[in-house]
Amino acid sequence: MPFFLFLWHEKVIEHLAEHAVTQEEFESVVCNPGLTEVSRTTGRPVSIGVTREGRVLVCVYEQVDGDTVIPITAFEPDEE
């Protein structure tokens, strides 16, 4: 399991809350993805995985360097 430093911004935390996603869920999926891809629209990294509660989440972020992540958004695939 990789370790990342997550740089959280209040607006992103609020945005995730609109999708009923917690910081813990986001971090868990990014650190333990079932699948990683690149967003076709933004070119940003995407991690797709299952939370402890069994929810599937799509998490989009910016990779600043090998250890640092800036969260952008997260949602359940059926929200797309």
Low-confidence stretches: none
Q: For the residues shown, what is the average pLDDT?
A: 93
What would you report as the Rg, rounded to the nearest angstrom? 11 Å
The N- to C-terminal Cα distance equals 28 Å
Q: Strand share of the residues?
A: 35-45%
Describe the main β-sheet briefly. 5 strands, mixed
SSE ordering: EHHEEEE
**Total beta-strand segments:** 5
Strand adjacency order, main sheet? 1-5-4-3-2
Shape: globular
Set out the fold topology.
Elements: E1 5-6, H1 10-18, H2 23-31, E2 35-38, E3 45-50, E4 56-63, E5 68-75
Parallel strand pairs: 1-5
Antiparallel strand pairs: 2-3, 3-4, 4-5
Report on this model:
The chain is an alpha+beta fold. The chain is about 20% helix and about 35% strand. The protein is built from two helices and five strands. It has helices at about 10-20, 25-30; strands at about 5, 35-40, 45-50, 55-65, 70-75. A five-stranded mixed beta sheet has the order 1-5-4-3-2. A hairpin with a 6-residue loop joins strand 2 and strand 3 (about 45-50). The longest helix has 9 residues, at about 10-20. It is globular, with a radius of gyration of 11 Å. The relative contact order is 0.26.
Summarize the structure.
The protein has 80 residues and is α+β, with helices and mostly antiparallel strands. The chain has helices at 10-18, 23-31; strands at 5-6, 35-38, 45-50, 56-63, 68-75.
